[in-house]
Amino acid sequence: MKKADEQAVHLKRKIGLLPAVSFIIGTVVGSGIFIAPKGVLMNSGSVGLSLLVWALCGVLSLFGSLCYAELGTSFTKSGGHYTYLLETLGPLPAFLRIWAEFVFIRPAVASYVALAFGRYVVEPFFTPCEAPTVLIRLVSILGVTLVVVVNSLSVNMASRVQVTLTFIKMFALVLIIIPGVMALAKGRTENFQRGFEVDALTLDRLPLAFYNGLYAYGGWFYLNYVTEEVINPNRNIPLAVICSMVTVTVFYVLVNVAYYTIMTPAEILHSDAVAVMFADRALPGLTSVIPFLVALSCLGALNGGFFGVPRMLFVGAREGHWPSIFSMIHIRRHTPLPAVLFLYPLVVLMLMNGEIYNLINFASFSRWFFIALATTGMLVHRYRFPLHPRPFKVPLVIAVTFTVVSFFLVGLSLYSDPWNTGASCALTLTGVPVYYVIVHKNRLPRRCRRVYHYCSKQLQILLEVAQQEVQTY
């Protein structure tokens, strides 16, 4: 019987504690720490306040990851935000989360990570001149294509790539931290002496500083997308998120201290590739190595995103909230192939038209709104079903603090950047009519249903995919 289960088509539990920690760190530490320092400083107005923002973003992300550890051990399905909204607040919010994720959040997130990858690969060859935008975008598309191929071929391969790239990117952060700390120990403190000047601070821009910082921490919830593939999730999910987020917060604050030790705030504000300028100043012998390591770091974040997010679409289709073809798995490779491939053209399209900082603000509103909604659902579920098994239970004060702060950031961002956040909100609401078309497709004309079933069948044959044969939750 066990042998038959092994050969059956299903997603298998292959992610232990080390791959889980690597998966979170490898997804969190991507382009953010090399791009977001400019955005945090620009919107906070001072060195001291920007460091405080980085630390608070780490604490807030840790609080959020603890809330999601409770959700992940309470509800054993994969799918992350979608599953938790479905179980606590109902099908419409859950569907809107999938809709927003795949129409613009994931394409935007993957695009700005890919653009960072392209920039760090291309710019060293053109220094001191400006690199051609077309070439940056082309290299970015090649990076996305490589990641899609890896995640289509094998879960084991994607997991091994993630572990390897995680160690490489942590090595890159250590290379930045060491010369910064050494310079600080030698007395280079001039950039910190007037660190808390608040003349340039405006409250309407402070949420954008947090959005840029939280973007750099984004990814702490990715392990929840693959709960059904985690070995002993009741133990490994809480351990993985705590170890990962404490490590990342310490490293991020130290990296920013290193940046401000070696470079002035004005230099950081005028650089789109902070790590490259840092290498020029502090590591002249490794000027060509640092951009390469940063590019690999971005590739790791892309890989983590393409590994985790398609599982949300997979679970949504399995629940009947998305076309059934996306709930199918490759019969030999055991990867959710249709869900992975669906992301590819959306990311490429966004990548060809996006600009990094606008993409961050554009995606952050809906992402954080639904995260706050999910933790609200967790509190509602606690109240309604106090006896529901919760192998890991986050303290109430942490859950409430995280939810309130998240809603506050979301609300204030409508004032700070009404165009991007308003567009994000409007695009999310366009999912309401789509929900009724997809979920109630039996009400569609018979001809439309025949076309739908014919296309699904042909795609299933072409992609060699089938429905899961073993229940994994």
Automatic annotation (TrEMBL):
Leader peptide range in chain numbering: none
Cellular component annotations (GO), alphabetically ordered: membrane
Q: Does the keyword Membrane apply?
A: yes
| A GO molecular function held by the record | L-amino acid transmembrane transporter activity
Q: Which UniProt keywords apply?
A: Membrane, Transmembrane, Transmembrane helix
Q: Quote the InterPro entries the UniProt record gives.
A: AA/rel_permease1, AminoAcid_Transporter
Classification via Pfam families: AA_permease_2 (PF13520)
What is the membrane topology listed in the Swiss-Prot or TrEMBL record?
Multi-pass membrane protein
**Transmembrane residue ranges:** 15-35, 47-69, 134-155, 167-185, 205-225, 237-262, 289-314, 335-353, 359-380, 392-415, 421-439
Query: Cellular location of this protein?
Result: Membrane
Q: Does the keyword Transmembrane helix apply?
A: yes
The protein's name is: Cystine/glutamate transporter-like
